[in-house]
Amino acid sequence: MSALVRGARFVSVLFGGVFAGFLVAVLVLELSLRSYDGRVYAQVRQVELDSLDRLAGATLLPALIATALLAVAAFRTREGGRWPVLSALALLVLVFVLTMVVNYPINNDQADWNVQAPPAGWADDRDRWQIAHAVRTVAAVCAFGCLILARRSDTRVDTPAIERPAGALAS
Fold first, then answer.
1. Radius of gyration of the chain (CA)
2. Is a pLDDT exceeding 70 seen at residue 11?
3. Which of 38, 104, 105, 110 is 20 to 30 A (C-alpha) from 56?
4. In the prediction, which pLDDT does 159 show?
5. For residue range 72-96, what is the model confidence (pLDDT) as tens digits?
6. What angle do CA 142, 137, 131 make, to 5 degrees?
7. Burial level of 161, CB count in 10 A (0-12/13-18/19+)?
8. Where does the pLDDT of residue 162 fall: very low under 50, low under 70, confident under 90, or very high at 90 and above?
9. 22 Cβ contact partners less than 8 Å away, ≥ 6 residues apart
10. Is pLDDT larger for residue 24 or for residue 153?
């Protein structure tokens, strides 16, 4: 296995796991905010938006790129674990598209909200954002699971079986 593939595997699992964990933490926070009014929600969202979008990009993009490299390498070499890698890539692409189409535009709108007087439809925006976030969280966690599964499959392919001495019985 090439150093590029080993590096891509490391980056995809590391950043895919950090990204999935980050999304789970944000989901827990967002669910906690459901019982608060618009002023509290708007203020917390603006605090989240201060740096969390950068963290999302800094973890999703390396995971996505490394997983794409793994998928190409897996299909070129016919290594074990290519279907879990392809599944992980499809899930990460789904996360990226959902983020760009739903979450990111809402983030941009929420960044300009007046925390003392959120817009009239603030709860509808919150609900759309949270539903899309829940979907992308599940997809990211599943992608991470696929990357772990692919890692295990590749390890089994890469590790030669222990040879038994002639005449030894299998246990």
1. 21
2. yes
3. 38
4. 39
5. 998 887 666 689 999 999 999 999 9
6. 130
7. exposed
8. very low
9. 52, 55, 56, 59
10. 24
Give the total residue count for the chain: 171
Tokens (6 digits) for 23: 């999304």
Q: State which amino acid sits at residue 138.
A: V
* 3-state SS string for the chain: CCHHHHHHHHHHHHHHHHHHHHHHHHHHHHHHHCCCCHHHHHHHHHHHHHHHHHHHHHHHHHHHHHHHHHHHHHHHHCCCCHHHHHHHHHHHHHHHHHHHHHHHHHHHHHHCCCCCCCCCCHHHHHHHHHHHHHHHHHHHHHHHHHHHHHHHHHHHHHCCCCCCCCCCCCC
Location of structure tokens 């246990």: 171
